[in-house]
Amino acid sequence: MAPVDFKLIRPKNYFANERTFINWLQLAVTMGGLGLALLNFGGNGIRVRISAFVFETGALALIVYAYTMFWRRANRLQRGERGSWDDQVVPVIVVMFFIFATAINFGLTFHKKAYTPPVDNLSVATMSWGLKQHR
User: Fold this and answer.
1) Cβ–Cβ contacts within 10 Å for residue 100, how many?
2) Long-range contacts of 124-131 (CB under 8 A, 24+ apart)
3) What is the crossing angle of helices 46-79 and 11-41, to 10°?
4) What would the pLDDT profile of 82-104 be if each residue is shown by its tens digit?
5) Buried b or exposed e, range 1-35, using 16+ CB within 10 angstroms
6) pTM greater than 0.85 (yes/no)
7) Would you say 21 and 70 are in contact if contact means Cβ atoms under 8 Å apart?
8) Using one digit for the tens of pLDDT, what is the confidence trace for 65-85?
9) 55 and 35 in contact (C-beta within 8 Å)?
10) How far is 55 from 66, CA to CA, in rounded Å?
């Protein structure tokens, strides 16, 4: 029996790497969509913007992670490296991030104290155009 050449690059490995990359991107698009939905339909407050920012930042971080891991794994495939290909840390971090972002969203939504932005003379003057001035 002929010895097995482990440096043989199989197309199924490249396709598996691409599928993994696309799955991570799908999750990132879902997170970004949640952030945009919050921003568009959640109201005008600062709380909505904070929640949307958290989701969008997580989506951007996930895109960067997916891109980095895709190229690392592709380079490992080209070099013919053997070993573990799975990542046990990042999926747990993603789940914890979803819990954290959802908790921030609910916490800011059901917070008792209303946010009132500081008012200065310029904003009072610009908001009162067309209204009767009381002195």
Assistant:
1) 13
2) none
3) 170
4) 888 888 899 999 999 999 988 88
5) eeeeeeeeeeeeeeeebeebbeebbebbeebbebb
6) no
7) yes
8) 999 999 999 998 888 888 888
9) yes
10) 16
